[in-house]
UniProtKB/TrEMBL annotation, chains A, B:
Pathway(s) annotated for this protein in UniProt: Carbohydrate metabolism; galactose metabolism
Similarity comment: Belongs to the galactose-1-phosphate uridylyltransferase type 1 family.
EC number in record: 2.7.7.12
Catalytic-site annotation from UniProt: H222 (tele-ump-histidine intermediate)
Keyword Membrane carried by entry: no
GO cellular component, one term: cytoplasm
Organism: Ruania alkalisoli
GO biological process: galactose catabolic process via UDP-galactose, Leloir pathway
This protein's name: Galactose-1-phosphate uridylyltransferase
GO molecular function, one term: zinc ion binding
Classification of source organism: Bacteria, Bacillati, Actinomycetota, Actinomycetes, Micrococcales
Gene from which the chain derives: galT
Length: 400, 400
């Protein structure tokens, strides 16, 4: 909890605390009287959760230390794959009808959700079931499966955090106020800076999965923040392309792409003082939009106060239009299932070559139809689009 | 139709013909009396289909030449993305209750499916809606979208073919006889060799999508064959890894992986004289099996008659076990939704570094649960597994 980034220049109050099992938990409040004020709300977690890292008793009655998630190196692709083989204390599970992201009920002594306080603006906390986590005392060493050099194995250190966008389970990110969206941007930037400082973290990804069609079972508006202990394949690929472009032209690839979109104008779907939203020229998803800052910026912590405020307005406008992209047979808008996430420069590599941008995409290709990632996409990594970027842009432009 | 591969050493009779709109169509028959025999069955296509490549009248009444599918270069990833912007003659569509892969009804003068004959063993034909196709006369030139060097565009030349595994709409690949499976392997090998010879084709992928869960709407047992005009991202990645391994060790990566699996034995789920089936050490899907030949073989055309026959038995056994991998609450086996495809060496590149193997995987992670490719996988290309390769192997080993 030490060494948190400085928030003194922002309009947000960050209140760090800890859940009963030791997980970090942060309130981000944007207006007085602060809902996480210690005078009026309970901040401590009253649940009888065991320490996550306390030794646990196995089926044989023998007590053993907990182990963290591991990851294996896929020698055929050069990619690390975290795997859910770890053993953790998981004695507490919210009931099936419980929304673990809802605020605690006022007056109740006990909460079966994850939020101790009875109200909040925005909160961030460590995921109860992390795929990436450092277990204290576990050595961060590479070993080899079967003793074979081809099969390296390492602890999947890093972090998986959850961010709740609203205390209202029926809300969506598109329905929050500009001030609240601004607070969410602040939380993303703050957590990115803090996670960048964790030993072993190479890259931070703030993203939202929205909609049952992509497997979301918890409809309370929330996102996730992953701090990876490796460069993700997508980032490696983009870095490779950006470095090659710089070596060939002396210029920044992502800046040139933005300038190309601005010069063409054909696929621009939103502009503000500091940001540009466009459908990329080779969009591969049925709906895809990128949002990039006009200024060269490697990541969210490097954005200015004005850029954050400006983004909030542009993004809300974009999300509201996306929820009208498809309409059903009666002409009623169908909220879009989507994945939206921030491509940020890694902690060390590519700080001058990669440039902050948000990528939002959907697998819905028609009111009743999804794009499935079948043989070509999942087997060979070769995407085939059923539409064109210009058609996507035209539809977004016609929605007020 | 000229220059077809030599089939004289096989047990299969290939009968090439042409559909009414000019698409190539091949019967592969494995026993006399051949069901595609011209004496007993109609081979011609009686449907009034227009020539696919005849000029078509636009909404403005002006007749224009058809255009083939185009693909755009995604400069952020270095990948080509075929896009469905082409205009083709598509006046004929089978009715919604029609199975276009069923044999024609005996005695009927007209068929509204794709198969003119009233019976078949295995057939292969060009897809009516190809994402990859060369339109005669269309120049295979690279141009640039918006005149911008960052946005290359090219015709998506190549081929998309359909392979029907059985005339029985209620069958599945796992239910065909070993002889029929052997014929299917023959058809895959024959089409791979033929497609490798097409100008512009760089790589051939024979695959099967099976199950509604991955978007299959046509349940007649069938697969697809794609001939790509580029190296797919997955193949490029594997080639990069294989070349690096050879430069470091002087050895073939895929051979070393197979030897590693054989030496360990921990994840072997099937062996025959010529083939080995194993769960890869870094399997990223909830169910994943690779099947590799014991001998160094770049692609299916290079396999021997004995290897093809041997594969048929091993693969049938594997498919039948996979359909028992998950059972419902009553203990009833649940047929597995899966994607299965052959990684083959490209036409030119990597013939000595890449090695034939089949990759079969499923998105089902529990009886009622699917693995969704959400933010980490679809946004960052970073897979996270909910299981371990050893658990997958143990389950397959316990199924007789």
């Amino acid at each position: 909890m030490t060494g948190l980034p400085d928030l003194s220049t922002t309009r947000v109050r960050r209140t760090p605390t800890t859940l009963a099992d030791g997980r970090d938990f942060f309130y981000y409040d944007d207006s007085e009287p602060y809902v996480s004020g210690e005078q009026t709300r309970r901040l401590d977690d009253p649940r009888p959760l065991p320490d996550r890292f306390a030794p646990i008793e196995g089926p044989d009655g023998v007590t053993q230390p907990v182990t963290g998630p591991q990851m294996r190196y896929d020698v055929l692709t050069g990619e690390w794959v975290p795997m859910a083989a770890h053993r953790m204390n998981r004695t507490f599970l919210p009931g099936p009808d419980t929304n673990p992201l809802a605020p605690a009920k006022p007056g109740a002594e006990y909460t079966d959700g994850e939020i101790p306080a009875t109200d909040y603006d925005v909160v961030v906390f460590e995921n109860r079931f992390p795929s990436l986590m450092r277990v204290p005392g576990e050595p961060d060493e590479t070993t080899h499966l079967d003793g074979n050099d081809l099969y390296p194995v390492r602890p999947a250190v890093g972090r998986c955090e959850v961010i709740c966008f609203s205390p209202d389970a029926g809300a969506s990110l598109s329905s929050v106020t500009p001030t609240r969206m601004r607070t969410i941007v602040e939380a993303w930037a703050d957590r990115t800076a803090a996670l960048h400082a964790i030993d072993g973290v190479q890259q931070v990804y703030c993203f939202e999965n929205r909609g049952a069609e992509i497997g979301v079972t918890l409809h309370h508006p929330h996102g996730q923040i992953y701090a990876y202990p490796f460069l993700t394949p997508k980032t490696q690929t983009m870095l490779h392309q950006a470095v090659a472009h710089r070596q060939r032209t002396g210029r920044n690839l992502l800046k040139d792409v933005l300038e190309g979109e601005l010069a063409s104008g054909r696929r621009i779907v939103g502009e503000s003082e500091h940001w540009v939203a466009y459908v990329p020229a080779a969009a591969r998803w049925p709906v895809e939009v990128h949002v990039a800052p006009r200024r060269d910026v490697p990541d969210l912590p490097a954005t200015t106060d004005a850029e954050r405020t400006d983004f909030a307005g542009l993004y809300l406008n974009l999300l509201r239009r996306l929820d009208q992209f498809f309409v059903d047979a009666d002409g009623t808008p169908m909220p879009l299932p989507y994945i939206s996430g921030w491509h940020q420069a890694p902690v060390v590599h590519g700080r001058d070559d990669l440039r902050l941008h948000l990528q939002l995409f959907s697998i819905r290709r028609a009111p009743g139809k999804l794009k499935y990632l079948a043989g070509s996409e999942s087997g060979m990594g070769a995407w085939i689009s059923d539409t064109t970027p210009e058609k996507i842009a035209d539809r977004l432009k016609e929605i007020a």
